[in-house]
UniProtKB/TrEMBL annotation:
<dbReference type="Pfam" id="PF09335">
    <property type="entry name" value="VTT_dom"/>
</dbReference>
<keyword id="KW-0472">Membrane</keyword>
<feature type="domain" description="VTT">
    <location>
        <begin position="32"/>
        <end position="151"/>
    </location>
</feature>
<protein>
    <recommendedName>
        <fullName>VTT domain-containing protein</fullName>
    </recommendedName>
</protein>
<feature type="transmembrane region" description="Helical">
    <location>
        <begin position="168"/>
        <end position="186"/>
    </location>
</feature>
<keyword id="KW-1133">Transmembrane helix</keyword>
<feature type="transmembrane region" description="Helical">
    <location>
        <begin position="16"/>
        <end position="37"/>
    </location>
</feature>
<dbReference type="GO" id="GO:0005886">
    <property type="term" value="C:plasma membrane"/>
</dbReference>
<dbReference type="InterPro" id="IPR032816">
    <property type="entry name" value="VTT_dom"/>
</dbReference>
<feature type="transmembrane region" description="Helical">
    <location>
        <begin position="49"/>
        <end position="74"/>
    </location>
</feature>
<keyword id="KW-0812">Transmembrane</keyword>
<dbReference type="InterPro" id="IPR051311">
    <property type="entry name" value="DedA_domain"/>
</dbReference>
<feature type="transmembrane region" description="Helical">
    <location>
        <begin position="117"/>
        <end position="137"/>
    </location>
</feature>
Length: 191
């Protein structure tokens, strides 16, 4: 499956394939869209952010399907969660989604747990749609746009480093983002 995704990245319809892969990865596929996004961005660096936007759009639509599965048909989604090996953690993720779903989704983009597990759990607890949308947009968006930015700036070396270190890089980016947001909030309160 991984090798097929790499071949799709070189196809003339690659942007459509990337969007479709991102959609299905958000629901069922185990292959992350970065396996197509990275080589596509490397081949056409000026279009890297466009490719990231397409990936994010496909993921967002897929995440709403995952949310709907959790909300309306959890019994259909549970075999997938079990097959992924996260049935034991699912109850804890559901509880976290019920307590602070927005933050959970923002952080979920760089955890080893597939994002689809978080979206299904968010639907299962009936998380309000606006916080779900915002959290999913930031959670997935920071990951795909970080890939696009790194490849746009660093080329093939950045792509190889990203492949090895995406999670730690993501956590560092998240800490920096939180620091900037915290500073802006602090400035707004002082003004």
């Amino acid at each position: 499956m991984y090798e097929r995704a790499l071949r799709w990245a070189a196809h003339r319809h690659a942007p459509w394939y990337l969007t479709a892969l991102s959609f299905f990865e958000a629901i069922i596929f185990p292959i992350p869209p970065e396996v197509m996004l990275a080589p596509m961005s490397l081949a056409q660096p000026k279009r890297a952010f466009w490719f990231a936007a397409l990936s994010l759009a496909g993921s967002m639509v897929g995440m709403f399907v995952g949310y709907a599965l959790g909300y309306y048909a959890l019994e259909l989604a549970m075999p997938l969660v079990e097959r992924l090996g996260y049935a034991g953690q699912f109850e804890q993720i559901k509880q976290q989604a019920a307590e602070n779903g927005l933050l959970l989704l923002i952080l979920a983009g760089f955890t080893p747990v597939p994002f689809k597990v978080f979206t299904i759990a968010s639907g299962a607890v009936g998380m309000p749609l606006l916080p779900f949308f915002i959290g999913a947009l930031i959670g997935r968006g920071k990951r795909v746009f970080l890939v696009a930015l790194a490849i746009r700036l660093g080329g093939a070396r950045a792509e190889a480093a990203l492949r090895r270190h995406i999670e730690p890089i993501g956590w560092i980016a998240l800490v920096l983002l939180a620091a900037v947001v915290g500073w802006l909030v602090w400035q707004a309160q002082g003004a």
